[in-house]
Amino acid sequence: MSQTWWRGAAIYQVYLRSFADGNGDGAGDLAGLRSRLTYLKELGIDAIWLNPWYPSPMADGGYDVADYRDIEPVFGTLAEAERFIVEAHELDIKVIIDVVPNHSSTQSAWFKEALENPAARDRFWFADEPLNDWQSIFGGSAWSQVPDGQWYLHLFAPEQPDFNWANPEVHQEFEDVLRFWFERGVDGFRIDSAALLYKSGTGYEDLDEVHDVYRRWREVADEYGERILIGEVWLPDQERFARYLRPDEMHTAFNFDFLSCAWDPADLRRSIELTLDTHTPIGAPPTWVLSNHDVTRPVTRYGRIDTTFAHGGALHGTPSDPELGYRRARAAALLAMALPGSVYVYQGEELGLPEVEDLPNEVRQDPMYARSGGTNPGRDGCRIPLPWSGEEPPFGFGTGTPWLPQPESWRKLTAEAQRTDLGSMLSLYRTGLGLRRKLLGDGTLTWLPMGEQVLAFTRDSGLTCVTNLGADPVPLPAGEVVLASGPVEDGLLPSDTTAWLT
Ligand code: NOJ
Q: Which of 18, 63, 309, 372 best tests ligand 1's pocket when mutated (most atoms within 8 Å of CB)?
C-alpha cells in the first residue's frame, strides 16, 4: 500500500460488542472478531476502526473509559488485542482505535483519586456549585454532585466526567496513551468528541485552544511513521471544520453533512460540492459516511418521507417503506464508494440491516433513552448483534443470548444467506469495494450534466458513476455498465439506482 493509504481507504467500523461473540457470553469480543477476519478481507476493506475496547462500566457503550491502557475483560485481554493487530496486518488490514479525550469514567483511577482527595480534582471540572446551566448532550443537567457536596461537569452521562484540558497533566496523559498504542502497532486513532475538549465561560464547542492539542498529537503520530488521526468533528460551519484538517493537525474527519443529507438530488449535490470545496484547498481527502453506531440505519432512513438524519430520535418510528429504503441504500452505497476520498462502512451496512425500532423498552441500554425520560429511544436499534448464519437467533453471533435481541426476520439477511446470492447487498458491497480499489479512491471528479434529478460524474480512472434520484428512468451515457445497484435494461437507469460505467 502507498505511503498515503488512508487518502482513498475503505474503512470498516467494528462495534465490537455486536460484531461476533467468541466465548458465548452474548457480547461480541476479540475472539469473535479474530475468527471473522477473513470475512472482512473478502469484503475488500483496507482498515478496521474499532469503537472503544478499553475497560469500561459500559454506561455509554465503552465511551466511559476506566483505563486507556488495557482491554475490557468482556472483549478479551491486552495480549489478545496485540495478536489481533498482528493478524490484521498479516492480511494487509490497518487497525484504527478510538480515543476518548473529552471525558473518562467515574471508575477511572484519576476520578476515584479525585473523589478521595479534593486536592486531586484539577484534572476534571469540579466546583462548589454548577458554574453554568449547561445541559448534558444525553439530557438533564451537565453537572452532578459528589458525596462531599462538590459538583463536576459531564457533557454526556454522569458516569463520564469531563477532563480539564487546562491541566498539563491531561495533555501528558493522552500523549502517553497515543504512544502506548502506537508502540503496539495501531495505525491510527478516531478521536471522539474532538471539538469539545476546552471549556470557557461562553461554551465548549470548537474553542481555538483545541487545535494546539491536535498539532501536538500530529507530531506524536508522525514520529511513528504512517499513522493517522481521524476526527469526530460535528460542526456545521465548514470553515471551522476545515481548521481541524490543516496539514499539521488531523488527517481526515467524518463527513456528517453527507451522512445527514436527504435522499434528494439537490441536497446531495450541495453536500458533495461543499465537501469538495472544503477539502480541496487544504489538500485533505474527503470522507463519505452513510452510517455509524450513533445514527439510524440507511435502509430505514431512506424509506421514510423525511430521509434526513435528525438527532434526538425525532423521526424514530415514522413510517418507512422497506423496499424503497433498501433500493436507495444500495444506490447510496455505490454513490459513496465512487466519490473521491475514503469511505466508511459501518458493520451490518453491507448486509442491508434495517434499524430495529421495536425494541422493548426494558432492553434498551443507551443512556440517551433513560436520560431523556424515554422521549429519545436512543441508539440501540443500530447496534443489534450481527446475523451471521442459520435460521433463528442468535444467527451464528455466538452460542449465548445476544445482549440485544435480534429480529426473527433477519434470517434472510445473514452473511451466509447473502454470500452466494449475487443480487444481495453483501455481493454489491464486495464487488463495489473490489472495483473501487482498482478504479476509485483518492483523486478528483468531473461532473457530467445529466439534468437536475441525476448525479453523474467521471473519476480520474475514467469510471463514470450515475445516480438517478428522479421518478422516471433515464438513458445512461455510452459505456459498459460494470456494476449497478438495480436492474439496468435497454440502457435505462431506473429511479433510485446507481450504475458504474467504464
Ligand atoms: C460520540 C460517540 O460516537 C458516541 O457513541 C458517544 O456516546 C459520544 N461521543 C460520547 O463519547
A: 63
Residue nearest to atom 2 of ligand 1 (CA): 192
Rounded to an integer, what distance in angstroms lies between the CA atom of residue 335 and that of residue 329? 10
Atom 4 of ligand 1, residue of closest alpha carbon: 294
Q: What is the pTM of this model?
A: 0.98
Q: What is the band of 409 on the pLDDT scale with cuts at 50, 70, 90?
A: very high
Per-residue confidence at 310, pLDDT binned at 50, 70, 90? confident
Q: Is the C-beta atom of 162 inside 6 A of ligand 1? A: no
Read off the C-alpha cell for 308: 434526513
Instruction: Quote the CA–CA distance of 187 and 185 in Å, as a whole number.
Output: 6
**Residue nearest atom 11 in ligand 1 by C-alpha distance:** 63
Section 32-41 average pLDDT:
98
Mean pLDDT of 410-422: 97
Tell me how far the alpha carbon of residue 349 lies from the centroid of ligand 1, in angstroms.
Answer: 19
Q: Please state the atom number of ligand 1 nearest to the C-alpha of residue 138.
A: 7
Task: Give yes or no: 452 in active site.
Answer: no
Q: How far is CA 486 from CA 114, 365, 371, 425, 431, in A?
A: 58, 37, 42, 11, 14
Beta-sheet strands, E only, within 51-208: 94-99, 126-127, 143-145, 151-153, 188-191
DSSP run (H or E) holding 474: strand 474-475
| Vertex 448: Cα angle to 445 and 451 (nearest 5) | 135
Q: CB of 346 closer than 6 A to ligand 1?
A: no
Q: Could you tell me the pLDDT band of residue 93, with boundaries at 50, 70 and 90?
A: very high
Percentage of the chain beyond pLDDT 90 is 98
Edge-to-edge strand order for the sheet containing 454-459?
A: 445-447, 454-459, 464-468, 497-501, 481-484
State the Cα–Cα distance between residues 181 and 19, nearest whole angstrom.
22
